From TrEMBL:
Keywords: Membrane, Transmembrane, Transmembrane helix. One of its GO terms (cellular component) is plasma membrane. One of its GO terms (molecular function) is heme binding. The chain crosses the membrane at residues 67-90, 121-144, 188-209, 230-251, 271-291. This is Cytochrome b561 bacterial/Ni-hydrogenase domain-containing protein. The keyword Repeat does not apply. It comes from Agromyces sp. G08B096. Signal peptide: none annotated. One of its GO terms (biological process) is respiratory electron transport chain.
Length: 325
């Protein structure tokens, strides 16, 4: 059982996490100083003038964010909160409070005997399925509506333009933007990476670690379980880093307008988007607490057999007999 000083990242203590955060802040402050110095250099000024941070969007690119996109974006965040929570529970290697075995008398029946899963892994996989479904609907709608043109780079100038945007942000002299019409190129690259690279990597490595991956045949060893595990976890760290920078920038570069775009499908700077966003945060927090294995036992029981494990008394919590078990 991990000691109480362990942070939510199972193998990192709170103290070490604080050191990481402090180190990151020092690095960031250094990067700001370097960027500010660079902006005084004539060649860098020329570079920013040539590549102001935006490629021209192709003709026919839709303007604005439709309501469906706001819903997809919300559900994505909601499921990800639960996925991260259950992923970290799995990683903490605590003895699961219950185990779940699929009921093989019902659809989808398989020849092999179902494997017994820890309840956290079951929940991780269940939410993964919902997240993937949401993602598939999003990608289909992106391509059906032409909305993909806003987040898929179509020109190599996206690379120097992104460098220019990062330099401008770091030097704290931010570019003027109109993200209702198009994102800046650093946004395009980041959104593309999350949707079309990190998500598929999480899915493939996750499936490799899951019971659905074939045990025999050509694909049984590719990629190896070790590689899949070594990639799956850093992919989560990438998601967390992306989300952190993304949300900080959303809140610091015209918060009300940005939130109206994504949470109210409108281009305005009143408080409506903010209010919807605040409501969505309450739901996300609820998702984090809902993703507790024992809260979801009744749901798990509808799809298979659940065996609860007796809980050892924990020094930091009430004895199990008073708890939820
Ligand atoms: C379809 C998508 C996904 C599938 C099928 C999947 C499946 C799995 C499986 C089977 C495990 C291993 C459980 C075990 O050790 O028994 C796992 C672990 C984990 N997953 Fe996922 N996952 C997916 C997406 C994600 C995403 C998007 C994240 C985070 C953003 C994530 C975070 C984690 C973490 C942190 C662990 C623990 C890794 C460790 O022990 O080192 N997963 N996942
Ligand atoms: C709850 C915190 C979040 C907030 C407040 C937020 C806010 C926003 C806003 C305002 C935009 C539009 C940007 C603009 O108009 O300039 C946006 C776009 C986007 N966000 Fe988030 N976001 C959050 C979480 C996430 C997460 C967790 C992910 C994925 C891991 C994500 C992925 C994206 C993507 C891919 C886009 C572009 C979507 C498109 O146009 O197709 N966001 N977000």
């Amino acid at each position: 059982m991990p000691s109480p000083s362990r942070s939510v990242f199972a193998d990192v203590s709170w103290k070490r996490l604080l050191w990481y955060v402090a180190g990151a802040l020092v690095l960031l402050a250094g990067a700001v100083l370097v960027a500010r110095a660079l902006r005084g250099v004539a060649a860098v000024q020329d570079f920013i003038e040539t590549y102001p941070g935006h490629s021209d969007v192709p003709e026919g690119t839709p303007v604005g964010l439709p309501a469906w996109l706001g819903w997809q974006h919300f559900f994505n965040a909601f499921f990800l909160v639960m996925i991260v929570r259950t992923g970290l529970l799995v990683r903490s290697k605590q003895r699961p409070p219950a185990f779940w075995t699929r009921d093989n008398t019902r659809f989808p029946r398989t020849a092999g005997t179902p494997r017994r899963l820890g309840i956290s892994v079951w929940l991780h996989l269940t939410v993964d399925a919902l997240w993937v479904l949401n993602g598939v609907v999003y990608v289909v709608l992106l391509f059906a509506t032409g909305q993909w043109l806003r987040i898929v780079p179509t020109d190599w100038s996206v690379v120097p333009n992104s460098i220019s945007v990062v330099l401008q942000y770091l030097s704290l002299e931010w570019p003027v933007e109109n993200s209702w019409v198009s994102y800046n190129d650093a946004q395009v690259l980041a959104y593309f990476a999350v949707v079309f690279i990190a998500s598929p990597v999480a899915i493939v490595t996750g499936l490799r670690l899951s019971p659905v991956w074939p045990m025999q045949g050509r694909w049984s060893r590719l990629p190896s379980e070790r590689v899949a595990r070594a990639v799956h976890y850093p992919t989560m760290l990438f998601f967390l880093l992306f989300t952190f920078v993304h949300v900080v920038l959303v809140l610091t570069t015209g918060m009300l307008r940005n939130l109206n775009h994504m949470y109210a499908a409108r281009d305005a700077d009143d408080w409506i988007g903010f209010v919807v966003f605040a409501g969505s945060v309450v739901v996300l927090v609820a998702g984090w607490f809902l993703a507790r294995p024992l809260v979801l036992v009744p749901l798990a029981e509808r799809f298979g057999t659940v065996r609860r494990m007796p809980q050892p008394p924990s020094p930091t919590r009430e004895p199990a007999s008073h708890g939820r078990s």
